Structures are given as structure tokens and as C-alpha cells.
Amino acid sequence: MINVGQINHLKIDRQTDFGYFLDAADYGSVLLPKNLVKTPLKVGESVDAMLYFDSDNQLCATCEEPIAQVGQWGLMKVVGVNATGAFVDWGIKAKDLLIPFSEQRRRFAEGQTVLVYVYTDKASGRIVGTTKFNKLLDKTPATYENNQKVSIVIAEKSDLGYKAIVEGTHWGMIFTSDVFGKLFIGKTLSAYIKDVRDDGKITLSLQKMGVAKFDELSERILDLLNKKDGYLPISDKSSPEAIFDLFRTSKGTFKKSIGTLYKARKITIERDGIRLTDSE
């Protein structure tokens, strides 16, 4: 199936001096300009190409990878504004992405960076963007389980913490008390379901909760110790930043994990590091 606004694996039908024509099934042959190809191609080969409509509403192909395809979110820079709306750079040099005024939660100015959802407008068939995420999310009941691992996109910062898009279908919140490491709008990462309230609102955690969290981290600590000849120059006295850089976890969680390992006589805790015991 050919999907306009997404990357497709297409066969090269024929070659000309200015490019390659790709077999796009019901859409016919689509030109892939030679200047958009990094290495020469041959007739009969297949290539991954993004399909989009140009300013004349003609279907085109490019080997450029967009910041976000249709059905995805991406962080994009506003490169122009006119009477129609705002135009953002979505990674396709020949075609900026339009965010119509009707799809903007607030008016944008050139130079701003905004999180955009890319979709195909059913009425016009055009590929456009929107920042009105509420119409896309929370349309189905949230059936997640506590501690379930999910994919999220950081969407907004508030006084309470960060709002995130969960699995592309629901809103979630990471409260300030659960934030560690560097978060920014548009960042995609894994998180865990902390709670789904009766009203459907979702609370997120950046790390597993309870015993399961410490078990997983403990295994990672032991694994790294084994790879580093039994010693790591990091301890409960290390900075939160150093601990996060190494294990992507908070200092509090790290201290609990090495405490558990210490009580189990798996490690010894020294002034400037931790060491595997002889039994390990």
C-alpha cells in the first residue's frame, strides 16, 4: 500500500538525465530528482522515498527524511507566516509544511520552534500540520496498567511538570517531583504508567516504581560492574548528574538499589565507588 506523506519502499521503473521514476502503484510513476539521491541508483532497484504533493499539487518523491511523517509528532521551526497560516521546516527542502490558522492554538511568529502533528486533510487531500492536540487525544478509554512501559512525546511544560503524549493516543502528566534528567518539548522517550485515575487522567513516571524498579536497576549495576572489572567510580556520594549520565535514573533510586545490593552482599560501597564482592 502506498502512503502519501510517509516513506515508502518503491521500485525504480526508469531513469532519465534528471532523475528516476518510481512505481507508485495506483499513483502512477513519480519522479525522484537525481539531486535528492546520495548515491547513483539502477533501474529495477528499490529505494525508500518520501511521497508528498508539491505547490502545484503534483505528487513528488524525495530521499530526504522528514522530521515527522503523516501520523507523527515532530519539533519544527516556523520559517514563514502569511495570510493562510504558518509554514514550518519539516525536513523537506522543496516544500515547507503549512499549519493553517485554524489549526493553531496560538498565533506563531517566524523563528519559533513548535511541536506539530502531521496529518492529511480529508477535505483538500493536502498534508498539513496542527498544534490542536486535544482533538486527537483521549478519544478512547485509557486501559494501561500500572508500571506499563509506554512511549511518550514531551508536549508542554506547566507549573505542575510536563504534559506528554502517551502512545500517540492519550495525554499524560509527569509531575515535577518525578522529573530528572533533561526534558524538553518534542523529546521522545520511554516512561511508565504511574496511575490511571477514574476520570481517565494519566500520571507518568520516568522510571519503574516499587520493587521491580530496583530489581531492574540492580541488574544493570551488576552487569556494568562485571564489564568494568568489578569496580565503578560512582557511589552514593556522587552527583545526581553523574548518576543520571551513567544509569539514566535519579540519585535516590540509585542509592536504594546499591543499598539493596549491599545488604545482599553483592557489592561493597567505598568512599569513591562501588565494588563487587569476592562472591560475585
UniProtKB/TrEMBL annotation:
InterPro entries: CvfB_fam, CvfB_S1_st, CvfB_WH, NA-bd_OB-fold, S1_domain, WH-like_DNA-bd_sf. Residues 3-64, 69-132, 145-207 form the S1 motif domain. Transmembrane segments: none annotated. Belongs to the CvfB family. This is GntR family transcriptional regulator. It comes from Vibrio ulleungensis.
